[in-house]
Every structure is written in structure tokens, then in C-alpha cells.
């Protein structure tokens, strides 16, 4: 077996390292050829792929440790410029005990195992995405209940799978014809299937080949979200907060050159500039798509922060947990409904007694509470700086600070960005991720989102407050001490765009703590008199989903509305249900992150980057419809209500 290195020499890859082979022999004695066959399959994947591309491999089965470890070892050793996107359909259970058997592993293999051993899958619905080695290894795990999300994605996406891999625990008689058809229609013409059992392979392959000659279901793709074209030219991003820098990082991990426009002299001067923000998922009793999105986003964000931090980027944070309690009857009942509404994974949410809440938080909460054990706080400003710095290490990021974009002009050559005294472009792709500035352009001014001003108070730590070990939230939130100060937040004032200090809001921040935790000594010790605070403006949607996708063309939609021929309710509904609403090609929206942007922003950015680069995104098409910036208009039209 030969392999051409980037330097052009031919290398022979004969076998995995002895340590891996021994693991195969010990664990799969019934498949003596397993390691050779797997290596052959993996080699063929790399040989078939164009250089510097992302190889998409779908793995079916609960056992996947060895398969991922081997593939990643081969990639890092022989194809370091290649990237792998591995989709795990199954429990994704990783049990890599290789290091226990060998005292010294080859360093590259050890690195792979360290990465994989750090994985903490959580049984959430939908996709859990993890990234390693600067995004060159991308793992998407769909637990059993969520396989349909992946099927839906394959059906609508133009992106093809390069190979299917089944682990020894898979019973192929349980793979139905519909799924085999999906396997065949969603993959590249050269894609192969790998199974350790050769009899199974012959059986499955004959069924699979029948479908390979059939029509590809992908050709009927209609989703405007998942459409894409030219991906080589520079992508222009307007922003400076968490949305934009996370997009820059996700694109940089894919090697895309970026032009970055920010009206301030550095990043994180807007809503993302706080010293500490709570990072925890927004859950609902029904665990609906909003709640599912937030869990996926929470886990993604957490891994991104940890990974940047481990690489030496300074991000003040502490995943110390969040303790949430009600502050009056209604909110207490709501939290109770959330806890009881679902069998939440322990890592996401636990119901704890009043005593436990006191013990975990370190202060007297004295109420039954909700506990988010993996949650905590992070300094969003540090996070934003780290993400952009890392992006600049990975790709060419051309930053234009002190550059407020005031106008977007669509020309046949692409989009031109205008500041007061200069023009930039044309760009084939422009992403408007400008926080509450999102609606500041002619094309986006109608977007249905509202401004909410917020003031976070910075209060000095003291004997009482320094006991706080977790973020606590009720009506408002309080963070553990960082640099001898705590963040106490936050006011929520509709419409206000000014960012002046408000004494009233400073006092109200304290009052909210007093209402939430009445007569506690530690609350009395909260001192807001230093008048130290930071004000920002959030852009909020009514349904709390972020906005992500092509910018809708409101005027063109109105035109369609005027021409809509039907009167009967059902006909109107059917008409709009199937009608793709007009968009501004090449202009994308990323934002409206509301009050939980720390949590929701990074995954939204990652999903958009995946779409821009023609990859399978970590978000299902149904979820994409939920975040589509046109969704509220579409809903109105379907219900037969006027847009204005
Ligand atoms: C007071 C307060 C407390 C919060 N607390 C939390 C919390 O505890 N947990 C949590 O998860 N979330 C919290 N949030 C929400 C979170 O901070 C936001 O959702 C998130 O930071 C928004 O990021 P963004 O990138 O969309 O916007 P921003 O951070 O506002 O970034 C927008 C950027 O765009 C730039 N820009 C705007 N217009 C233009 C233009 N025309 N040309 C060039 N550049 C432009 C601005 O300079 C700015 O840097 C809080 C928000 C506020 C205001």
C-alpha cells in the first residue's frame, strides 16, 4: 500500500502500530483480518479524496473507539493536511484503554488517544459536535433517537459521504431497506462500505449497489439554507462580538481567508465585552427544539473554550456549575416543570434539595434548585479575543478595525461594503454579525428582532460573597469572584440603545437579588455603591432562537404576498409552506443571540461555517428552519396573516 506525502515521496503504509494491532487481536479474535481490512478501507478513503479536503465518514455501531483512533492515527501520520468529519450513529461509546496495556505509546498515537479519552458524550437529542486538532478531526455524534436528524440532513444536503463504516456490534439485519437506500444515495460514487464480517458485507453491498444505480435523493434538495457555491474567495464578516469571532474561527479551521470589519478599535466592545457571563443551556419542560439546540450549543461552546484555553489562549472561566432557583411562585413552578418534564442527562441538569443547593453554591440558597453541573462562567471578552487570535494563527484574517460599515451594495460582481470614506470588495459572501447593528442596513432593517439594554454591576468581593462557588441565578444572576469582583446582572430594558451608566438599574440589580434570596446575610453584603458597571445592548428574537442563514429580502417577500392567488385558508397555508421565500444571495445573517449568546453563538457560527463550506452542518434541517431569519414572516404568511 503506498501513499504520496506532501513532499511528493511515496510512503508505504503496511500496518498500524503494534500496540493497535494487539488491541485488535485481543478484542476481536473472531475477526483475525480486521486490522488489515480496516487499514485498507481507510487508505482507500484517503486515496480517493482530493488533497486538503474534508473526508466525511459515517460510522454505524456502538463500538467506535478503535476505528476512530486508527483513522485519526493514519491521518495525523500520513495525511496531516487532510481533515476528517466522522459522523457517529450509535452510542459513540469510547473505551480506549490502550494506554493501560502499553507503558509507552508512539507519541502521535498517544496524542490521538488523549484527545479521544477527553471526550465526554452527553445523551442529548440531536447532534453533539466535537473538534480536535484545529478542527481537522470533527466528530458528530447522533445517539439512536436522533438518527433521523442525520437522515434528514443527508436527504437535503448536497454534501456526500465518502465512506460508510460499520462496527462489529452491528446486526445488519436491523438495517432496513430505507436506510440502505439513504446510504447509497447520500454518498460519493466511489464510496465504499466497511464491515468486519465479510458475509455481512456481501449481503449489504448487494442491496446497497442496487440503490447506487437509482436516483440520488439529494438532487431534489430545495433548502436554501443548505445551498452554496463558490467557497474559495474571501468571506467578509461584519462584527466584533462572539458571533463574528466564532465564525472567523470556524472558517479559519477550514482554511478560509477572512476580511473582518469592526466599527470599534478592538473586538468585544459591544454586548460581548462583559467580564463574566453565565454559560448554561436554556431548557424547556418539553425539551423542544429550542432546548435541544441550547444543549448542543452549550456542549460545543464548552469544548471550544476548553480547547482554546489548553492551547494557551488566556480565557478567564470556571465551569463551576450553575444553581438556579425560582424567585416567586410562577418561576418556581416553571423550574419544577422543567425538571419534571424530562429525563435530563445528569451532566445537563439535576434537581437538588435546598441543603444541597447551599452546599454546592457555598451560600445559603435555602430552596430546592436546579443544578447544571457542567455549566459555569466565562469572560466573553477574553473568549472573543482568543477566538480571533486563534483564527489569525490558522488563516489569513485581514482585520479592519475602526471601520463602521454603513451600506451594503449588491453588484453583479458581488457585495461591496461601504464605510463613510472607503469601499471594500466585491465579496461573494458577506456575513452580517454586527450584534444589535444587525438591522442597521437597508437590506436587514425589517428583521423582526428587538433591542434590550442591559447593565451588569461589578461588585467588590467580601468575606460573605467570596464563599460563592457556583454561578447562582434566579431573578438576576451572581458570579463567583474573579479579580476580587463579582458580576451581578443584569437589567433588561426594551428599546434603549444608549449605553450610559444608570444608578437606577444598579440599585435594581441588587434589589433583584434581595427578592430572589430574601433576608440572606450574604445578599445584604452586596455593595453596588462603587457605581462600577458595564452596559451593553442585546438583540432579541421573540422565540429566543438565534438568526442564522441567508438574509431574507423583505420587499420581494411582500411582493409575493401581494401576488398570492389563494383565498382558502388551507390553500394559502400550502402555498406558503412550499414557497421558498426570496433572499439576498451571498448576504448572511448571524446573530440575534439575545441574553444567552455566550451559549448559543459559537454553534450558530459553526453551523454557518459548515454551510458556507459545503459540509454537513451540526444542525438538522428542521432546526435550520427554526433559526432561519425569515421564520416569523413565513409563519405569518402560512397562517394567512398580513406581514405588516
Ligand atoms: C448586560 C448583558 C449581560 C449578558 N449576560 C449574558 C450571560 O450571562 N450569558 C450569556 O450567555 N449571554 C449574556 N449576554 C448576551 C451575550 O453577551 C450576547 O448575546 C452576545 O455577546 C452577542 O454577541 P454578538 O456578536 O451578536 O454581538 P456584539 O457582542 O454586540 O458584537 C457586535 C459587534 O459588531 C460591531 N458592529 C456593529 N455594527 C457594525 C457596523 N455597522 N460595522 C462594523 N462593525 C459593527 C460592534 O462593534 C460589535 O463589536 C448578555 C448581554 C448583555 C448586554
From TrEMBL:
Gene Ontology cellular component terms for the protein in this record: cytoplasm
InterPro entries found in the cross-reference section: FAD-dep_OxRdtase, FAD/NAD-bd_sf, tRNA_S-uridine_synth_MnmC_C
Matches recorded under Gene3D superfamilies: D-Amino Acid Oxidase, subunit A, domain 2, FAD/NAD(P)-binding domain
Highest taxon listed in the record's lineage: Bacteria
Keywords (A to Z) from UniProt: Cytoplasm, FAD, Flavoprotein, Methyltransferase, Multifunctional enzyme, Oxidoreductase, S-adenosyl-L-methionine, Transferase, tRNA processing
Pfam families: DAO
Residue ranges occupied by any FAD dependent oxidoreductase domain in the UniProt entry: 235-610
Alphabetized GO MF terms: oxidoreductase activity, acting on the CH-NH group of donors; tRNA (5-methylaminomethyl-2-thiouridylate)(34)-methyltransferase activity
Gene Ontology terms: biological process: methylation; tRNA wobble uridine modification
This protein's name: FAD-dependent oxidoreductase
Biological classification of the source: Bacteria, Pseudomonadati, Pseudomonadota, Gammaproteobacteria, Alteromonadales
